[in-house]
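In this supplementary section we document a worked example of the pipeline. Step one takes a protein sequence of length 308 as its only input; no multiple sequence alignment statistics are reported here. Step two produces a three-dimensional model, which step three serialises into structure tokens for compact storage. The input and output of this example are shown verbatim.
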Amino acid sequence: MTNEAPLVVVVIANWNLRKDLLECLGSLYETDYPRMHVIVVDNNSSDDSVACVEQQFPQTQLIKRNENGGYAVALNDGIRAGVVLDPDFFLVLNNDTLVPKDTLSNLVDVMLSDQQIAIAAPKIIYHDHPERIFSLGDHLYPWLPIPVRVGRKAFDRPEYSKTTEFDYLFGCALLMRTQSLKEVGLFDTSFFMYYEDSDICRRMRDAGWKNVRVGSAVIRHKASMSSKLVPEKMLYLRARNRSWFYRRYRHGPLPLLTFLALLVGSIKTVFTYLVTGKKSQIRPYINGALDGLKQPVPALAGTDWDRR
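The serialised model returned by step three reads:
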């Protein structure tokens, strides 16, 4: 890559993860990619995250929100702020990740190889267990009621180093083509957090774009650090948004089969909480799943480029 390389604007949402955020920024600024602008959107943290970024990484653009409006809201704020730079791509990145030196270059190379790729995501490995995959992606099949997840917690192996098209990608690191975002819209803020990544992948796919996993690019992920700060709320949101998502987008031959598949999955989750002694997690999970079924599925919210 040279100074003629495409411009990438990196957007990181943060809420009370100062240590992890600083480590993430440190890894970013050590990458070999030559044209990168970093924006951190802070969701009203109380742990001096903002002051530490200003002191240690003054080259970072900071957006300070006066409330925690959720992950999707923060990402959209960062994208809207970055679009004035006319970037070719946005890298949406979790604050609990570490970025190896050549990851961004590898992602951009794949994007440049195919103009129909909307989203290119790196292979996600566990930070503490780098021999294991955190996620590769999900495939849709017309005869199955829910997608098939590939590579979850699997040991890494050579075939996972290829570039592979998926229907859904896990959102902790997504390189997104600006052109596709302008066509399809930004993240749906009604989700707050969880399933906003699946939703935007689905909208890209339905608009004729491709979503790919780039196995030659790697991200080390510490896995849901922010959600551990308020576990009951996050359990509720994950279960509610799951119901909303599958009600919004049809999967498989019959909605009833999808509902039954989700019900079986929910029963297994509750049983797991019981046998592992996590009984306090059962109520918020069930409440979220029920509200996701009872409440009307919201329309797309906050996806317009000019909406603040």
